[in-house]
Structure formats: structure tokens, C-alpha cells
UniProtKB/TrEMBL annotation:
Keywords: Metal-binding, Oxidoreductase, Zinc. Residues 18-348 form the Enoyl reductase (ER) domain. The lineage of its organism: Bacteria, Bacillati, Bacillota, Bacilli, Bacillales. Belongs to the zinc-containing alcohol dehydrogenase family. Its cofactor is Zn(2+). SUPFAM superfamilies: GroES-like (SSF50129), NAD(P)-binding Rossmann-fold domains (SSF51735). This is NAD(P)-dependent alcohol dehydrogenase. The keyword DNA-binding does not apply.
């Protein structure tokens, strides 16, 4: 850790200048510290499928430059005059948002992700100063104190980084729907989100089943805590498991026949979508009505719940499976994510930026 305040607010980063452009070396500016700001030297930044959707222009116009990354782990290097929760040298993280209004009913409940005025995303947003937000594919970031979380000593920084999105994205719905001992849970997809979901649901005491397109990752799924593993390309899977699950977590960021998966829910079961495909899903209401089933969505978690998730993972020894890469390999990593050729999350070593 270098430590200390860097004089220039210009920092090194990797960004793109248009949809599907290659990543290049860029320089971005970080604001001077406000009184409640924390400056962080980023050590590791995870690659999320949301980064790819955004960089490829699938969720709107790409800013120039766009620096993605909302799975950030590093050290505090300076603090504003009124910061009380952190000190220089602390191990910290930043997730998918860096601010919110702080006053609406959602924010008052600690659910800043659902801020009624719209939370400020870590990248591809606009902060309270009117400046574009830039993410973690960079060497430093400045974030208001209330949107920084503490990374427990038990979690290595490189493996903690993906928990700031993949971890909280899966923990939050499992926590909200009270998954625990006796719950029969299915996780759809065994990728960056899914493998973490399996570990968390198992640690919560659920009986976990993985529903993946093929059986290629079955050995891993069982090792991570699943009791059962089925291939969804086999139509008999949907016949055999009809009405089996109390809760299904769909982590897939591609269009699925959601009605087939709803048919796997038991009476009063719920299917929650956390994967975010670019195209709409087709839903038939009679997939819900006969068994009083529910179809819901979930968006990350609030700051308080994110800290709870990190502490839970530290307590239960839950770490994402990662491949650490150089910043020179981001484009290749994106291609490999789209080809499902990663086990299971890429993490950028920001020393290579």
C-alpha cells in the first residue's frame, strides 16, 4: 500500500470510448476530498456481466470514456475532515452505488438501492456535483463515507471484490425471503452469480439444487454445497422437478423460458430474477395462478445489508472462485464471460493498470 494523499486528482484507468470498442489506457479525474469523503487505493476490481452490458451499449449510450467496475476492494489512503468510520490503512470495498438521496422512505429503511430519486451508480451515472461517475477499473476512487464497507480480515481482498456485487446480489434475495434450514432452493445458472448463490444458500441451511444448461459443472456445484444438479437442456428435468421448490433464484443474464421454471415452484413458491437479460422475458399468467406462485426481481442490497453479507461470508468461509487477470486482458475476459469460459469470476489486478 502506497498510502498518503496523491497530489494530482488525475488517475490511471482502463476505459472504452464507444459500444464494443476495445479497452484502452485512459486518465480520469477524481474529486478533491469533501469532508465526508474517503479516498481508496483500489487493489482489485471484479468484472461483472453488468460491466459488459454497459460497455457494449446494451443498456444505453456509452459515455466517453466509460470506466466500468463496481466490485472494488482496496485500502483507505485519505479521509475527509468529518469522516469517523474509517482511518488510513483500513481494508474497504465499494459496490454498485456511491450515493443516494438519503431522505426518501427507501433510504431511511437502509434500502438505498431502491432510492426513490435514484441511487448514484458507481459508474455510468452522475454524482451530486454533476460529474460522471467512473468505476473500479482504475487506481483510486473517492466515495462518500456512507457508501464504503469494511472488508473483514478473514477475506482476501482479491476474493472479496466480487462479493461487492455477486455476493450482495444473491445474498439479498435469499435473506429477504427468509431462506434457511428446511428451505428447498434452486439456483438457475452456475456462473459468476450462481456459484456464489450456491455457497450462500448452503451456508444458510437450505437444500440447494443447481439448474444448469448442462452437467459440465456438476462436480463444482456439489463441491460448493449443492445437494442436487440437473441439466435444463434435458426436458425430463422439468417433468421430474415440477412443483419441487420453495424458492428459485435465476442468475442467468440471458433470455430463458421463464414459464418452464415457474412450473418448478411449489405452492406459494417464489422465483426471483437477479440476472438481467437485455431483452424482455415472456410471462404467461397461468404459470403463476394455479399454485399461487410469485415472480419477483431483486436489485443488490443496501449498505447495511452489504456489510452483513461480508461478515456472513467471513464467518462461513465463503469466497468466490476467481481468476486474477492483468488489465491488458479485459477484452479477452469479456469474450470469455460471454462464452461461459471462466470459473467463475474475473478480477483485475489494478497494479497492472
Amino acid at each position: 500500500m502506497d498510502g498518503g494523499f496523491f497530489v494530482s486528482q488525475t488517475v490511471k484507468a482502463r476505459g472504452v470510448r464507444g459500444a464494443k470498442e476495445s479497452f484502452e489506457k485512459v486518465e480520469i479525474t477524481r474529486r478533491d476530498l469533501d469532508e465526508y469523503d474517503v479516498q481508496i487505493e483500489i487493489k482489485y476490481a471484479g468484472i461483472c456481466h453488468s460491466d459488459i452490458h454497459t460497455a457494449h451499449g446494451e443498456w444505453g449510450e456509452v459515455t466517453d470514456p466509460l470506466v466500468p467496475g463496481h466490485e472494488i476492494a482496496g485500502y483507505v489512503t485519505d479521509i475527509g475532515s468529518k469522516v469517523s468510520a474509517y482511518k488510513v490503512g483500513d481494508r474497504v470495498g465499494v459496490g454498485c452505488m456511491v450515493d443516494s438521496c438519503g431522505k426518501c422512505s427507501s433510504c431511511e429503511k437502509g434500502e438505498e438501492q431502491y432510492c426513490l430519486e435514484g441511487n448514484v451508480p458507481t459508474y455510468a451515472g452522475v454524482d451530486k456535483y454533476g460529474e460522471p461517475t467512473q468505476g473500479g477499473y482504475s487506481t483510486h476512487i473517492v466515495v462518500t463515507e456512507g457508501f464504503v464497507v469494511r472488508i473483514p480480515d478473514e477475506l482476501p481482498l482479491d476474493k472479496a471484490a466480487p462479493l461487492l456485487c455477486a455476493g450482495i446480489t444473491t445474498f439479498s434475495p435469499l435473506n429477504h425471503w427468509d431462506i434457511g434450514k428446511g428451505s428447498k432452493v434452486a439456483v438457475v445458472g452456475m456462473g459468476g452469480l450462481g456459484h456464489v448463490a450456491v455457497k450462500i444458500a448452503n451456508a444458510m441451511g437450505a437444500e440447494v439444487t443447481v439448474l444448469s444448461r448442462t452437467l459440465a459443472k456438476e462436480e463444482d456445484g456439489l463441491k460448493f454445497g449443492a445437494k442436487h444438479y440437473y441439466a435444463t437442456e434435458d426436458e425430463e428435468t422439468f417433468e421430474k422437478l415440477a412443483g419441487s421448490f420453495d424458492f428459485i433464484l435465476n442468475t442467468v443474464s440471458a433470455k430463458l423460458d421463464i414459464n418452464k421454471f415457474l412450473g418448478l415452484l411449489a405452492l406459494d413458491g417464489t422465483l426471483v430474477n437477479v440476472g438481467a437479460p437485455a431483452e424482455p422475458l415472456d410471462l404467461h399468467v397461468f404459470s403463476l395462478i394455479p399454485q399461487r406462485r410469485s415472480f419477483a426481481g431483486s436489485l443488490i442490497g443496501g449498505i447495511r445489508e452489504t456489510q452483513e453479507m461480508l461478515d456472513f461470508c467471513a464467518k462461513h468461509g465463503i469466497e468466490p472462485e476467481i481468476e486474477v487477470i492483468s488489465a491488458d486482458d479485459i477484452d479477452e475476459a469479456y469474450d470469455r464471460v460471454l462464452d461461459s469460459d471462466v470459473k467463475y469470476r474475473f478480477v483485475i489486478d489494478t497494479a497492472t493498470i
